[in-house]
Amino acid sequence: MPQIIVSGFYKDFGYGFYCTNIETQARKWALTKKGDSIVSVYSYQEDKSLKLLSFPQMTEEWLDFVVNCRRGIKHDYDIVEGPMADDQIWDYVEDFIEGSITREAFWVLAKFKHPTHQIVFCTPKSLSTIKFERSIKL
């Protein structure tokens, strides 16, 4: 059952139930967990009453949003969707926060990364928009 996990570790888009529409990425996520590696497949039904923020690609606004979320600054969106700051991109984000690289240098480094995707269901109401379909054991 999907849950909004609130822990001391801040993620790209804050606390929530993280999913992706890229199967290879979902498989990688599943393989990082202890125990059985299972990919759960959900369908999504849009609810126009929810507050949604979408980043079709990495932009200045995306970078600032990820930095704020990683710093623990809360937002009021029900669902946030966009590219993922994987480990390498996150290293660049940390370098940017620390002032080790400029914003311009961040974009030079980040542009060579493979596309990623994440959609985060941040509120209990947002979880009602997804329905479990099946699971795949890896």
Question: How would you characterize the overall build of this protein?
Answer:
- The chain has 138 residues and is of the alpha+beta class.
- It is 32% helix and 21% strand.
- It has five helices and six strands.
- The chain has helices at 23-31, 60-70, 87-98, 103-110, 124-127, and strands at 17-19, 38-44, 52-54, 79-82, 118-121, 130-137.
- The strands form two sheets. It has a four-stranded mixed sheet with strand order 1-5-4-3. A two-stranded antiparallel sheet has the order 2-6.
- The chain is globular and about 45 Å long.
- The two termini are 19 Å apart.
- The model has no long low-confidence stretch (mean pLDDT 89).
Strand order of the largest sheet: 1-5-4-3
Number of helices: 5
- Based on Cα principal axes, name the global outline: globular
Mean pLDDT: 89
Radius of gyration: 15 Å
Low-confidence stretches: none
**Straight-line distance between termini:** 19 Å
Q: Biggest sheet: strands, sense, closure? A: 4 strands, mixed
Beta strand %? 15-25%
The percent of residues in helical segments reads 25-40%
* SSE sequence, one letter per element: EHEEHEHHEHE
Structural class: alpha+beta
How many β strands by DSSP? 6
